[in-house]
Amino acid sequence: MIVRHHHVLTVIRKIEQLTAGISRFELSDPDDWRLPPFTPGAHVDVHVDEHVVRQYSLSSDPQDRHRYAIVVKCEEQGRGGSQRLHATFRVGEEVCLSLPRNHFPLPPGDQPLLLVAGGIGITPFLSMIGELERTRRPFALHYFCRNRMETAFHDALEAGGRTHFHFSQGHGGPRRNLVDLLGAQGWRHAHVLCCGPQSLVEDVGQAAAILGLSFQFERFGGIRHIDNDDPGYVVRLARSDRDIAVSAGQSMLSALREAGIAIDASCEAGSCMRCKTRYLAGSVNHRDLVMSASERAQFLTPCVSTCLSDEITLDL
């Protein structure tokens, strides 16, 4: 196994097209050594090329240390990373990954689990299902998709007998009543895990709150990046005693870099936490995807977070 500077070198062994826009990539060590361990729900940074890094959930069985699998949807309206990956990745090509890390772990204990996936949000649950079946922990999966043709792993999940499919195309109207869905007989004391677009996460979170169910989530897509409606403000650097102006529509990260401040960043979408920075004063509009409320009381992600006050003070 080749690990350099917390990166893992892998090679693509197999590419499987699951639907018209979704492919599964199987990766292993070039010399077939065992790969670093990971826990269900973990993800890795994938170095698509020299300048593009994207995060993908590991969808393979954590007990199989000889291969990782990632499932990637080619996002036509995305930032280009998934399109480039689909266009350039080929069997036999070497791919650099980060070490696995987990912001969406299975909760400990034997409490029943309700898994709610939206579209490509099925991916972290694929590594969880085997573990839940091995430990005989009660669970059910609700999988929301547009239609059957766009549903990755439909046949395998249907055969498992624990998945309820919800197709929106052709039915119209709002998403079915999630309170009724999550509050069904036998699941009134379950812990809810949800992964999908922000709208689904918000709806499921509201339903869980009404029912008094514990809830954790991982969301993707629909990330609100910096736009021209975001006003300018001043970033004060406490340790270096500098003031840096952030223009309207400019990211905090961009302004800091232009001022010569070295900030390590990878995804620039609020998910990898590589640019996580402590702030000391000011009001923050947090747009990251993974930090807890307690973390947000001390840290921000300058790649996507903005300032709600005239100035903000960073511990830099």
Taking pLDDT < 50 over at least 5 consecutive residues as the criterion, the unreliable ranges are: none
* Inertia-based shape: globular
Helical residue percent band = 10-25%
Distance between the termini: 37 Å
Tell me about the biggest sheet? 5 strands, antiparallel
Secondary-structure class: alpha/beta
Listing every helix as H and every strand as E from the N terminus to the C terminus, the arrangement reads EEEEEEHEEHEHEHEHEEEHEEHEEE
**Rg on CA atoms, Å:** 21 Å
Report the average pLDDT across residues: 87
Number of strands: 19
Commentary on this structure:
The chain is of the alpha/beta class and 316 residues long. The protein is built from seven helices and 19 strands. It has helices at 81-88, 123-135, 154-160, 178-182, 198-211, 252-258, 293-296, and strands spanning 3-4, 7-17, 22-28, 43-47, 53-57, 68-73, 94-98, 113-118, 139-145, 163-167, 191-197, 214-220, 233-237, 242-246, 277-281, 284-285, 299-300, 306-307, 311-314. Strands 1, 2, 3, 6 and 7 form a five-stranded antiparallel beta sheet that branches. A hairpin with a 4-residue loop joins strand 13 and strand 14 (242-246). It is globular, with a radius of gyration of 21 Å. It starts with a strand and ends with a strand.
Could you give a quick summary of the protein structure above?
The protein has 316 residues and is an alpha/beta fold.
List the main descriptive attributes of the protein structure presented here:
single chain; 316 residues; 5-stranded parallel sheet; 18% helix
